[in-house]
Amino acid sequence: xxxxxxxxxxxxxxAIRELGIDPYGHRYDTAEEMGPLRARFEKWETDxxxxxxxKAVQLKLRGDAAGRVMLFRDMGKMIFAxxxxxxxxxxxxLRKRKPASTPDDKTAGREGGAAQGTVDDTSWKLAxxxxxxxxxxxxxxxxxxxxxxxxIWAEKLTLLSKSLNPMPEKWHxxxxxxxxxxxxxxDLASNPESMExxxxxxxxxxxxxxxxxxxxxxxxxxxxxxxxxxxxAARPFTTHHNALDMDLFMRxxxxxxxxxxxxxxxxxxxEINRNFRNEGIDTRHNPEFTMMExxxxxxxxxxxxxxxxxxxxxxxxxxxxxxAIFQAALKVAESINNEAMEVGQAFNKLPETLxxxxxxxxxxxxxLSMVDETDRYIKLALASLAAAKTRDVTGNIVLxxxxxxIDYTRPWPxxxxxxxxxxxxxxxxxxxxxxxxxxxxxKIEDSNKDLAVVxxxxxxxxxxxxxxxxxxxxxxxxxxxxxxxxxxxxADDPSVALRFECFVAGMELANAYTExxxxxxxxxxxxxxxxxxxxxxxxxxxxxxxxxxLRHGMPPAGGLGIGIDRVIMLLTNxxxxxxxxxxxxxxxxx
Length: 590
Description:
With 590 residues, this protein is an alpha+beta fold. The chain is built from 17 helices and 20 strands.
């Protein structure tokens, strides 16, 4: 079937060339994005007395738009289509120009006073050769149809790229999950929801960047290939530099390089970086992922908590508020419904001789798919409206994540690591016999493991599932110092590290320290290997140059790492990291 479709499209490609038209277009920079175009038309209507009054205006507003053909309906003497770009979509209509008509003839193609532009014979023949997926440009007068759909009546049609492979069959886009990940270009082209997720990702990262820059942070770049890896407990990817004949590691964290910049006198630095960890793949982990790390001289982990709250909470409130989702979803639902009505009305006007059984069946299937799609967006709008009402009533910043609502309102609760272990595991983390007994009860292998390692395994097994039940972000503070080799110790209790991790909906969202700046302690921590830690998944990798840098003096500082991909998952309500990474790593397709 695919070969037949491609064969038909290749024939159309040749026919287009025979019309003297380049099927792959040329520069076309006069088009207006469809979102602003629609907004401009709505303002024009308002300025001319509203929708009904504007229809009587003789001099119509003109539109010039370019996009991909997503719907195409050839009604014989008239062709309707919907074209889409990343900002929205618009309906277009084409009619063949009568021989006596010219583009300057203001009555050309009019029926009942409607401002219906027409196209010349070549453009009409070109229109008949269009397929779903083609990229075209349209120019002509604009009008709102009887069903309320904003429409450009074409007077000029330009082909910008002929699509030789068909778009996904279902009207609502590519639905196969693996195909969406492997062919992200089709996912973006056919699923407006996916496009919106990645536009929000871009906006959220830009928001984070602006917040930090407004605080005086400067953005820097550090090496992605490193001779010594460090800054995280993770297995690195390795590569080889041929010219220097040396093995290198792909970055697992930029931490130690950013701290070097503090030594150099840059007091507030951040980097939005790609990291690479040679570990497992699941819904929350991708081997290549995006983090934001920042370091502030003369600060501590309390300051980092405030920054974490501000970044995430303000992003949730300003960029992905339920009201905005509600308005966008309802607008799409209304647009789909209007298009369905247009199709139905056009079908009813067809002569009975053209209403064959096969054509009727296809039209019915098409209309039912549009009804299903309208229903889907209405449900999304209603769910978002419910969340918006929650925000209005409580004054809190509440967003959906799966079946639950997450409250991002500041301040977020702070809970001590030791208290959580005591509350949920029932043991004092410093009571070694009790800790090991609890580990055996939980079937955790504790032999040949240091106490701090066993305690953390209990924390992961017992405490983290409880944190996952909480409907707000939680800062877990003051970790066992033995598992935090880059962190300053508490002054009155050296067994406690001034570290926090932020957990939301079962995910670690952020990790931060009051940074260790004592070179002697840092060197000792690098050399000490805890029993039970995997040798290739530890932060205890000696970096002599970093220790040397500390000997020159690094100011007291706070440092923070935030998982950008997980922030996007939470704020866009996506359950898999692959939904928020444009090109996630996948097994090679067979």
